[in-house]
Design brief:
single chain; alpha+beta; four-stranded antiparallel sheet
Length: about 600
Amino acid sequence: MRRGISAFNGWGDPVGGIVVMRHGENALNVIERVKAKLEELKPSLPEGVEVVTTYDRSILIDESIANLKHELILTMIAVSLVILFFLWHLPSALVPIVTIPISVVLCFIPMYFLGISSNIMSLAGIILCIGVLVDGAIVEVENAYKKIEHWQEEGCIGDFHQVRLQALMEVGPSIFFSLAVIAVSFLPVFTLVDQEGRLFTPLAWTKTLAMLLAAFLAITLDPAVRMLFARYKPFAFRPVWLAKAATATLVGRYYSEEKHPISRALFWMYDRPCRWVLHHPWLTIGAAVAIVASAVPVYLKLGNEFMPPLYEGTILYMPTTLPGLSVTEAQRLMELEDRILKSFPEVVSVFGKAGRSDTSTDPAPFSMMETTVVLKPMKEWRAKERWHSRWAPDWLKKFLGHIWPEHISYEELIAEMDRALQIPGNVNAWTMPIKGRIDMLSTGVRTPIGVKILGADLQHIQHVGEQIEGALRKVPGTRSVFAERAAGGYFVDIIPKRDQLARYGLTVDDLHMVIMTAIGGETISTTVEGRERYSINLRYPRELRAELDQLHRVLVPVMNGVQVPMAELADITLASGPAMIRDENGMLAGYVFVDITGRDIGGYVDDAKKAV
C-alpha cells in the first residue's frame, strides 16, 4: 500500500531521494561527495531521466562562511585603522596591527587538530575577541612609547635599546597573565550540554584558543617586532626627500600627551563637559538615574527567545489537514499548493512530499505535508519603494539598504504566501529546513511553539487539544494553530462471521487472502523489460472498491466455484480511532502546533499560558 507521494513544481509524480548524514560528519564534505557521485551516475541514466537537486545546504554554508570571513577581514582592518589613528606613530602601531592577523591565522592550526570546522559559531568566536587580541600589544606599545618619550626629554642618556627592552619587560608578565585570565573566563561554556553545548562550544574553543595565542604572542612576537622596527635616529641617505619620507614613516615623532595631535583634540572636547559635570554633581547624578530609570519600561517590553532565526534562503512549508486523507486527494492538494508557491517570482523550485518516505525515520501520515521552497537571492526579489528610494544617491541607498532594503522582506513574502494558501481544511505552518529539523529533534514539535498534552485517554487528549486550539487562536501574533486529532482517524473494520465461513467451508485466512488481493492489492509477478523491472499488482479497480456498498459486493470464491458476496461472510463498518499514537514518558500524548508572526517567542508563550 502506498504511503507517500511527492511533486516537483506542482507537476507529475517524481521519485524523490533523501540523503541521511551520519552523526558527527561534516555536512559540506558529505554534500560535495554526494554531488561527485551524482556526476558519476549521470552517464548511466536512461534517456530523458534527470537528477535535479531540490535542496542543497552547501549554498547556505558557503555563503554564511564567506560573509563571516568578509566581516572578519573588515573588523581586522577597522581595528588596525583605529590603532593607527590614535597612536599616530606607524612603527608603534605596527605591533598590534601585525598581532591581529597572526593570532587569527594561528588559531586555525589547533582548530584543525581538535576537529573544529570553520562554521558560523567558530568564526564568531574569533570576531568576538579581535579587540581583546591587541590589548596586550597596545599596553606594551604605550609603555614603550612613554619610556622613549621620557628618555628623549632627559637628553637621551643611556642605550636606546636598553630603554626599549626595559619597557617591554616591565609589563610583559602582567599582560600575559591578564590575557590568560580572559581566556580562562570562557571555560564554564564548555560545561553546556545538549543544544546549547553543541551551539556554543565551537565559539568557546576558538575564543579561548585565540586568547591563549595572543597571550603567547604578547611575550614572544610583540617584543620582537617592537625591538626590530623601533628606532629614534633619522635616516640619512639621498635623495633627501626620500630620507625624510622614510624618517616620518618608519621613525616618526614621539609626542607627549599634551602635544599629541589626537590627544589635544580629545582634551579640548573633554575639558568643558568634564568641568561642567564637576561643578554640577547632583544634577549629573540625577540625570544619570533618570536615564537609567527611563530604560526600565523599555527593557520590560523587550521580547526574548533562545536565538534570532538564521535566514536560510529556503522555506519549509508544512501544512496540516485532518486525518483520513486519501492518497489521490493528498496528491491533488499538494500539487495545487506547489503550483501556487511556484507562481511567486521569488521562487526557484518547489518540491513537496506528503506521507512517509520509504524509511523508518519518517513516520508521517498523508495529512502532514512538507514542501521545500528554494528562493532566489534577495537582491532579485520584487522591488519595494522605501522612504529614501526617490531622493537618495546610489552610494547612500547602498548604505541605507542594509536597514531598509528596497525589496520586499522575508516576513512580507511569507505573509503573501500564507494569504494565497488559505485552503479550507488546511492549517499552514512556515519555518526553514534547518530550523525545523532542529525544532523537531529537540522538542518533537515542528513549529516554533507547541503544546504537549499527556494523558491516558486519546479521546480526552483530543478534546483538551481542541479547547487549547480555540484559546490560542485569539492570542495576538498567532498565524496558525492546529491541535492533532489524536483519535480522529478513519478505518474500515471487516469482522469475519465465523459461522458463515464454516457453512461455506472457508477459514479466516481464506477471507484475509481475498481482502489483501481484491482490496489491498497483491504483487503477483514482475515484468522484465531490458534492464528495467516492474512489479505487477492485482486488485479490484478503484470504481469497484471506493464505497462501503461496493466492498459488500466483493466476491469471495467458495467450493464448487460459487462466488459469495463478502457481506454474507463479514460485517463491514466504518470506525474512528487514533490515526497515529504518540507516547512520551510512558503516557499517551497529543500535540498542538502553533505558528506565530510579528512577535517574540518568549512574550507569546507568556500570553499563551495566560490564555490556556
